[in-house]
Amino acid sequence: MTNFTTVDELNELLAEGASVRVLDVRWRLDRPDGHADYLEGHIPGAVYVPLDTELSTHGEPSEGRHPLPSTETLQTAARRWGVRAGDVVVAYDDAKGLAAARAWWLLRQAGVDVRVLAGGIRSWTAAGLPVATDDVTPEVGDVVLDEIGGQALTIDEAAAFPASGVLLDVRAPERYRGDTEPLDPVAGHIPGAVNLPTGLHLDPEGKVLDRITVLKTFASVGVTPGSSVAAYCGSGITAAHTALVLDEVGIEAKVFPGSWSQWSNTPGRPIATGDQPG
How much is the pTM? Predict the structure, then answer.
């Protein structure tokens, strides 16, 4: 089963009145609150999901910028979104699926049938499909979520991971090398991690490239079917997208949700720089 839904498939599901719940997860580093964009135009029936408060929690800097929510917090949020037992959930954003992938990663662990809308809201509007401007408040759902967190690495597990598998740093190369760090106190990467920016898997519209191309890209850094692989990024959002792409080609991956924001804010953690794992 694919992790993605096309705009035509979603439009058909909605027209049929299927049990589908659409989530608008608009979030970007430069615009973390996407509610205003949602109100300007969203897929009819879609519920706005604030990533910072419902798909993550907040703590000390040493926990990273987007720590995982508890299962209870996520379940309360999912019920607010109107998710009921047996629903298909489709998440989208306006940032090439990066934010929507965070919803996919969490809800999939929780036992929900969840997909990401290929191309996001831009593909929907490009197809000439209608948008709505209301603030959707659905009837509270009854979904019961499985415990989440089993696909997440702790900081110690992330540190040890390169000894037995491939730890992917999916940030931009200049951040991996330590040339620049716009958000965190120290620049560089986790020793032993290899760089593979998640954008390499996407076309200009934000859709994932074909399976053969994606597999070749992963193979270039030693990730093949059956590999032990985990991903991290700045704060655990983009890494979930790499996990989504890996799953789509049949490779299971874990995510270090604390990512560089946790590593760089934890005293005593070693830092590597340059274009090699170190």
Answer: 0.96
